[in-house]
Amino acid sequence: MALLELQGIGKEFGAIRALSNVSLSIDPGEVVGLMGDNGAGKSTLVKIIAGNFPPSHGGIRFDGREAHFTKPVDARAVGIEVVYQDLALADNLSAAANVFLGREMRRRFGPFTVLDHTAMNRRAAQLFRELKSETRADDLVRQMSGGQRQAVAIARTRLADAKLVMMDEPTAAISVRQVAEVLDLIRRLRDHGIAVILISHRMPDVFSVCDRVIVLRRGRKVADKAIADSSPEEVTALITGAKEAA
After folding, report:
1. How far apart are CA 124 and CA 103, in angstroms?
2. DSSP calls for the chain
3. Ranges for the ABC transporter domain (predicted)?
4. Beta-carbon count within 10 A of 129 CB
5. Which of 80, 109, 114, 220 is deepest in the core (most CB within 10 A)?
6. For residue 49, how far is the Cα from the chain centroid?
7. pTM of the predicted structure, to 2 decimals
């Protein structure tokens, strides 16, 4: 059974049509690349799935049920998490504090409650081990590489028990070694049965880690193919319009 199903999704902003009749499905543990030029509709589609705004047309099913998201907390409640390009991390806090930001663990002492830093550090360290990341729970985020920062953001989705993680350009502006680290993190999510939508302009990343690639152009889906049945040259032609559809 598909984890996420979009059926005929359309979105208009006044006279501007951002998406038109987009249908797709994603299975548990599947990694799907979402590609397209700027203005193709990728961000709009992600924001609809994440609950930032409702579609103008069409329907969403998640985990076998009809889904109606009116705000991001609705999508997070069913297991949809987004790792945005800016990561939304607090540089002055530790890795563990960022993982638990807004979900802090507390201990009670009589009428008082205090943050349980020991328990949060222990749980964060466990999450980093599961992800096979070298990130340490008490490391300050401001001292981390781009790959380590991604590990913190991804650990936060693991804490939330996500079923689907959407990652927005996770390998932009980081070194080759850090790119490999981030792609490994995506594979770890897949190994835990978590579906991933990878929004990326980087063809090598998509063809390295994804099972399928979906291409949008001018708000329409023009391809939905297994990676094994496509090529970077074909996807480039689909993105630019040199090839109409696949």
Report:
1. 12
2. --SEEEEEEEEEETTEEEEEEEEEEE-TT-EEEEE--TTSSHHHHHHHHTTSS--SEEEEEETTEEE--SSHHHHHHHTEEEE-TTTT--TTSBHHHHHTTTS--EEEETTEEEE-HHHHHHHHHHHHHHTT----TT-BGGG--HHHHHHHHHHHHHHTT-SEEEEESTTTT--HHHHHHHHHHHHHHHHTT-EEEEE-S-HHHHHHH-SEEEEEETTEEEEEEEGGG--HHHHHHHHHTSS---
3. 4-243
4. 10
5. 80
6. 11
7. 0.91
Single-letter residue type at 123:
R
To 5 degrees, how large is the angle CA 18–CA 20–CA 23?
120
For domain 4-90+160-240, the question of CATH label 3.40.50.300 is answered with yes
What are the phi and psi torsion angles at 165 (to 5°)? -120, 125
Amino acid identity at 77: A
Q: Parse the chain into domains and list their residue ranges.
A: 4-90+160-240
